[in-house]
Amino acid sequence: MPTRAAFSFVLHSHLPWVLHHGRWPHGVDWLNEAAAETYLPLWRDLHARTAGTRALGVTIGLSPVLCEQLAHPDYPSEFVSYLEQKIEAARDDRAAFTAGDDLSMAALAERWERFYRSTLEDFMGPHGSNLVARFRRLEEAGAIEIITCGATHGYLPLLATDAAAEFQIQTAVATHRRHFGRAPRGIWLPECAYRPAGPWPSPAIEREGGFGPDDPTPPHARVGVEELLAAHGLRYFFVDSHLIAGGRPLGTYAERFDAIRRLVPAETAAAPRQHTTDRAYRVGPTAVVSCFGRDAATTVQVWSGEHGYPGDAAYLDFHKKRFPGGHRYWAVTHPKADMADKVPYQPLVATERTAQHADHFVRLLESTLAGATGGSRMLTAMFDAELFGHWWFEGPQFLAEVVDRLVAGGRIEPQSAGAFLERHGAPAIVDLPEGSWGDGGGHKVWLNETTRWTWVELHRAEARFEALVGRARARSGDALLERLAAQTARELLLAQASDWQFLITTIAARDYAELRIRRHFDDFDTLATLTERRLAGSPITDTEERLLGEIETRDRLFNDLDWRAYGARALATRA
After folding, report:
1. CA count, 13 A, side-chain hemisphere, 189
2. Domain 452-565, CATH class in plain words
3. Residues spanned by CATH 3.20.110.10 within the chain?
4. Which of 173, 409, 463, 564 is the most buried (most CB within 10 A)?
5. Against a cut of 0.85, is the pTM above it?
6. Is the C-alpha dihedral spanning 73, 70, 506, 206 positive or negative?
7. Known active-site residue 140
8. Of these residues, 166, 384, 386, 413, which one is catalytic?
9. Does residue 384 carry a catalytic annotation?
10. In the prediction, which pLDDT does 17 show?
């Protein structure tokens, strides 16, 4: 019997550091929503399937900063409080609907009450409140493969130096090893953003007349992102389809955000390339690290609310909510239906549609891979994990039903990306252009006139920190210096999160994002100044040390952070 072609769902789970930085509408409730609607449902559905089979063929990325929050000792009480509030809100809704003799809506409210109560019982139950540890056990059972991401989701091609990009990667690998007991084989590049080797003038501060002598990052040679990955033992990553096959970028966010539709004009198609996205390739001149491309057909079918499954009339509508509790009681009805025209949600009808869509998706996979033999072909369907459950409530059930159909046997074998490479390798080589999975295929979602100032500030901070580490690296035996330098590094990493530029661009939470990144810049500068004073032998006052403690409490992550490693490898050849 010929070896079957392979398929993997590749899910990217990430939220920026929101713990200790507000609750609602912007703050830790983002994390609570994702945990209740996505992470726990996905874990439950995958865990329920580990008894009958070992390999489910799902590749799950858990960003280091997300892991640090889910495993933080302060998080369980936050989540429990959130769930109790949602239970109470559902109970209030049920009473209001019952008083109005709207028994069908009262039944939906009771359903929400059961949903959040069972989530609370699960979270407090025998599997434990550390969701990271739960996913670790799934990987140890051979059911899934867990991959990493940039430490705080820093947008690697736009960071000022290879030292800055590598610090994101090496911190990610170390954090992954601590949480999962093994080094990651793969990585989801933040925003699937890639840059090949070559000369690099900063697009953020380039201006008419060229660069001046005071610019923190003058033009210089950079290594390809794949070389940074290889230096830390990473074997593969993922890119959007147009970087491999050419053609029109799929885009990711314009369907949901008007601001991106206005910012990024209709994409022009790049010239087709001879490569396809149904196989793995080794990347660049070193050909050590491999890449997989996002498959267009499966992506649109699952991602798009306008053309894909989530826009089905029967599914729970994301946008229409009953306030003040925020529960949802209405169906999509039509992707373009006015809020007033939404009809009540019918869970049984939605469940039937989920099964039908799972059947359709498997047929789509089979037709896309028709005729594939020899085991060298693989499709990867790449999504933000939060699509499943948060944006598309029925998404976890859909994914689980697709997995059921694939593991039952047939023409397609579910395999994680790492397992596929281990078995088949990547015979062909590809030279990737620069780009991302953002709309337009480039960097514009994250680098535009509304965000340019953030990159100027980041590049200044990166240059300052690299100089600081150069002075402090050889110093030892000074506990206060260690604390200062480590927290300075944390603030730089937190400021680098691509989430801030995204939220500014989309206007979704612009004020919050600007406040957050400015605060990290301010804390970075304060701590860098204190570190420099400590190096110079100047005293640090009790008030300043208390301020350090406050910042450490607010932004305590990456406890084993090796700040001395910043720039130590010196991979880049400076011009």
Report:
1. 32
2. mainly alpha
3. 5-200+222-427
4. 173
5. yes
6. positive
7. no
8. 384
9. yes
10. 99
